[in-house]
Amino acid sequence: MKKYTKKRHQYSVYSIPSPAKIWQTGDMNIVSISWVRNEADVIEAFVRHHCTFLDRMIIIDNRSTDNTGEILTSLRNEGLPIELRSDNSFAHLQGEALTSVLEELREDAPDFVLPLDADEFLGENAGGKMRTTLERLPSDVVSMVPWRTYVPVPEDDASELNVLRRIRHRRCTEKPQWWKVIIPSSFLKQEMKIRMGSHALVDESNDQHAKHCECKTLFLGHFPVRSAGQIAGKVFGGWLSQMANPERTRGAIFQWKAIFDKLKSGKEIDPQTLMRLAMDYGTEKQWETLPAEEKGANALGHFAGLEPENMKGAHTVTLDPIPVDFQLRYDAKRLPPLQILAESAEYLAQELACCSKKRQ
User: Fold this and answer.
1) Which of 28, 79, 156, 228 could form a disulfide with 111 if both were Cys (CB 3.0 to 4.6 A apart)?
2) Considering the entire predicted model, what is its pTM?
3) Domains defined for the chain, CATH in brackets
4) What is the mean pLDDT of residues 104-124?
5) Residue 59 region, left (φ>0) first, then alpha (ψ -120 to 50), else beta?
6) Which residues contact 219 (CB under 8 A, 6 or more apart)?
7) Of 214, 198, 221, nearest to 143 (Cα)?
8) Handedness of CA 218, 183, 139, 13 (dihedral sign)
């Protein structure tokens, strides 16, 4: 196992296909980088969707205790262009980890780097070839790709395991509109960092946004809420890991805090509640449920990239499925949400005991 230690983060590489192997046949080299935790229900679809037009997928598995890692290893063994990394940090250090990979990629200098979460699926607006559209992106600015939030509805077929076939409705409007970055090689030579959630690329020295433009040709289908067990496990583990980051910005990943507070009461997540959680995900309605001390000094616009007055708007859904042409081969073994919560609490209790002992 090879370890990379960068100035901001450390992770281990336990599987590296030859960097010289180019999966696609075009002149460009396009790479995705991802940081995932307990995404067994969606990780295979994520990989199979994107490997059809990417040359490499670098995936850091952060403390997954479901079978995310096993599925990724099986996909790699099929010959898919996956490079697997391991990150054992409990705190949610996604931005730091991805920035470290970005620094590592300076040597290879891919033409474009796509930071992608496991619940995000890149789509093409005009129905053209994804690879061609990516190769035509501007090389001198960061392309900002808009989220489209997909929403489970009570009529969905719960027996369908492929998320792209099961969840086919999305919000008609995104208020606020969230963005994700696509980074051209020209920015790899500069001291840049990826912000939490990959919503911005900023200059390391002054925290100013890199020169960017809105991408009109692509979108990111976002599937943050997929099932009752999935979203409960996500926020029970995710919010505690976010709180464990001593450098966290108050208000960041407020979606997890808002849902965490809803679920603490133990109320069952029925299909209507699940749909509502997805409809409200990342919106002003969720933001307003936060206690004042959790909002910190920032407004929602600081994280979403829009001014507050642009955020109000009714949300409805429309049928707009993302095309899918593959079958899943591996069974997902999700953990009970209570197990994720209990394991997180146990870890934090052990850390507290160690800190208390050091102070004695």
Assistant:
1) 28
2) 0.91
3) 2-224+309-355 (3.90.550)
4) 95
5) beta
6) 122, 123, 125, 145, 146, 147, 148
7) 214
8) negative
